[in-house]
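S-adenosylmethionine mitochondrial carrier protein: structure, please.
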Amino acid sequence: MNGKNLFFTSLIAGGAAGTCVDAALFPLDTLKTRLQSQHGFLKSGGFKGLYQGLLPVLIGSAPTAALFFVTYESIKATTQPLVNESFHAFLHMGAASLSEMVACLVRVPVEVIKQRRQALLLDKGNFDIKFLYRGYWSTVLRDMPFSLVQFPLWEYFKNVWHLYVQRDIHPMESAACGSFSGAVAAAMTTPLDVAKTRIMLASKMTQRSELKLATMLRTIYAEQGINGLFAGVGYRVMWITLGGFIFFGVYEEAKVLTQLALTQL
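Here you go.
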């Protein structure tokens, strides 16, 4: 596939996959956010209004996912021919990490608005740029370890299954690999997700020193122990397991359809 086709394929497939997942599983994400909130589950809305904050997600989901996959697939296509196959897992880790940093430029402002809506925090006035990016590094430091686990596992499981069945794997088989790898990564990175959520939901008057990831992790552990660090882990794993199946399934299917359409142009 040439560079132009790779760009458009990743753009369309990634955008479609991200939007499908975020729209379909939004209530699970809302419940997870409310369980992790420092304001408490019931005060943050409980089981009511589970679609609060959906609009910014629908606007930002496609460009965020598309940006990630355009970066990820471009790095892979550029560097894989130059690297011995035995080192491809490390290449996938690096590609995923860099892609997360790029995608977070769009993801973080969307996430801040979304989570504050989910937790029923009715902010008055406009969000300034500094406030919208207050959780950038905490999001990067959550998503990079997540991707370092998920994407190499996804590639590994796909390769193992390909060798086992001796044929190209189907989109749904790729989706199953993505689902399982996502579940593992989700459970492992839950404490980072809890801290990131607390940072994004903190009052505008919160001191900057209190919004550091390490400081927030210590605060949560001191106040609530291990249970606090793993708040919402069930909903997070469920969301990412189901989301992984939908995401990677739609992504692979959309890639096939987009490539077919591009070859006919």
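Notes: The first helix runs from residue 3 to 24.
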